[in-house]
Design a protein that fits this description.
Low-confidence stretches: none
Shape: rod-shaped
Distance between the termini: 60 Å
Helix content: 55-70%
Order of helices and strands: HH
Mean pLDDT: 85
Radius of gyration: 31 Å
Number of helices: 2
Largest sheet: none
Number of strands: 0
Amino acid sequence: MTACTTDKAALDKASADKARANVVVDALSEADRAVAEARQMPDYPPGCRRHHRSGVQLGDKLGVANKKADIALGNANGQIDACARWYDTTKASREPKA
C-alpha cells in the first residue's frame, strides 16, 4: 500500500518551492514597474516652449531690422541648444546602458 501514501517531505518541499516561485514572480513584476517608472521622461521645461520674435516693425531701417532679427535668431538657437542638451541628458539617464 505504499503507492497510495503521500510523501509529506516531498509535498512540503513542493509547497515551499511554489511559494518561493510566487515571491520571485512578484519581485520581478515590481522591478519591471520600478524600471518603467524610472524611465518615464519628466515634463518638458516651459522655457523650451517659448517663442521668439524679432520685434521688427514697419518703418525700421534695414540695418536695425537685420540686427533685431539676428538677435532673435541667436536667442532661439541658444534655447534650442539648451533644450536639446536637457533632453539628451535626461533621456540618457533613463535609457538602458549597452
